[in-house]
């Protein structure tokens, strides 16, 4: 039996001559946390607005539990949404903001009071229920907006980059809080973000979009370790794309290390090889050793170390652990070794 909650079927959206979405197919499972991720202009916000009902697809349809909702107006879809601007009512108290959707649905005063009290405790704001939102901190306003969206027990919980305006520490704390709330209520959630770290941390499924198309939809681990193409590999994480050619016996040489290509490519095929920064190791180059590079940038970030190494007119990013004793400096000649088990090979487009 399928557990698909929202089925997006061949959805396209055009704005005049511009195609924002091109036949997007996506199944969102009940209770899952899905992140729509991609560069600016990739179509992720347009897709979220179509799900919410603020935009109508040019083609295709949306099925919620098997029912076509493509023509259903936003206020009748029963979805909760948190906007980037939060869109709270500054003249209302915290409790009044949270209860707003319940009042529109004409729930009883008792039900409103009980639901507001429950959510105030969940987001840990019962002590400021009567305070106006204009007097709140950024993190408190975020929690009020989330509580308001959850108050109506939404069929879908939609978020449009709601944490982007927060400072780094508060944002990290709110990411944890958001994931905990989603798991507590078990609500199917779709989040738009351009932040890879945020998406990797929150999502059950990552949907990477570019040029209006889904490039890959999979778990964060799968997207990171087994990217579907060079575009996904380049966008997610610190990946190096190295051009190479399949040799005899399907051997592939990267940084002077030869290994058998995992994919079944013919000799002479030009390929891109995605090499994650943490899957490259460095050692001092020996005299007259081939396949060396020169360190052109070095930094210690506490949790890890990073170097940029110039190899044949390409700068390769390398990342080492904090426990790595290597102290390579700018100007040092080094030899690079890639982990063949962690490489992804794609044909050149």
UniProtKB/TrEMBL annotation:
InterPro entries, per the entry: AAA+_ATPase, ABC_SmlMolc_Importer, ABC_transporter-like_ATP-bd, ABC_transporter-like_CS, Mo/tungstate-bd_C_term_dom, P-loop_NTPase, Transp-assoc_OB_typ2
Source organism superkingdom: Bacteria
Pfam family, one: TOBE_2
Keyword Transport: yes
GO molecular function: ATP binding
Residues in ABC transporter domain copies: 6-236
Family under the similarity heading: Belongs to the ABC transporter superfamily.
Protein's recorded name: ABC transporter ATP-binding protein
Species: Roseibium porphyridii
């Amino acid at each position: 039996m399928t557990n698909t909650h929202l089925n997006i079927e061949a959805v396209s959206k055009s704005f005049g001559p511009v195609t924002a979405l091109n036949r997007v197919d996506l199944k969102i499972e009940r209770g899952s946390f899905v992140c729509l991720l991609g560069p600016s202009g990739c179509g992720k916000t347009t897709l979220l607005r179509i799900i919410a009902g603020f935009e109508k697809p040019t083609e295709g349809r949306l099925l919620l539990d098997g029912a076509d909702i493509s023509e259903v107006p936003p206020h009748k879809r029963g979805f909760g949404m948190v906007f980037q601007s939060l869109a709270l009512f500054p003249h209302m108290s915290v409790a009044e903001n949270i209860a707003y959707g319940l009042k529109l649905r004409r729930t009883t005063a008792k039900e409103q009071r009980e639901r507001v009290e429950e959510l105030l405790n969940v987001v840990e704001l019962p002590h400021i229920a009567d305070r106006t939102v204009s007097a709140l901190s950024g993190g408190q306003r975020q929690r009020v907006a989330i509580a308001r969206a959850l108050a109506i027990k939404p069929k879908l919980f939609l978020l449009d980059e709601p944490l982007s305006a927060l400072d780094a520490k508060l944002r990290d704390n709110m990411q944890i809080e958001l994931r905990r709330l989603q798991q507590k209520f078990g609500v199917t959630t779709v989040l738009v973000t351009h932040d890879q770290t945020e998406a990797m941390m929150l999502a059950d499924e990552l949907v990477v979009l570019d040029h209006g198309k889904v490039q890959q939809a999979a778990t964060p681990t799968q997207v990171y370790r087994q990217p579907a193409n060079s575009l996904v590999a380049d966008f997610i994480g610190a990946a190096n794309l190295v051009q190479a050619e399949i040799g005899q016996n399907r051997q592939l040489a990267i940084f002077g290390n030869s290994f058998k290509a995992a994919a079944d490519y013919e000799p002479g095929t030009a390929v891109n090889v995605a090499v994650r920064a943490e899957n490259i190791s460095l050692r001092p180059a020996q005299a007259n050793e081939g396949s060396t590079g020169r360190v052109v940038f070095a930094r210690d970030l506490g949790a890890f170390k990073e170097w940029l190494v110039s190899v044949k007119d390409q700068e390769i990013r390398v990342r080492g652990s904090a426990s790595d004793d290597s102290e390579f400096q700018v100007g040092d000649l080094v030899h690079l070794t890639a982990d063949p088990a962690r490489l992804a090979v794609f044909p050149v487009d």
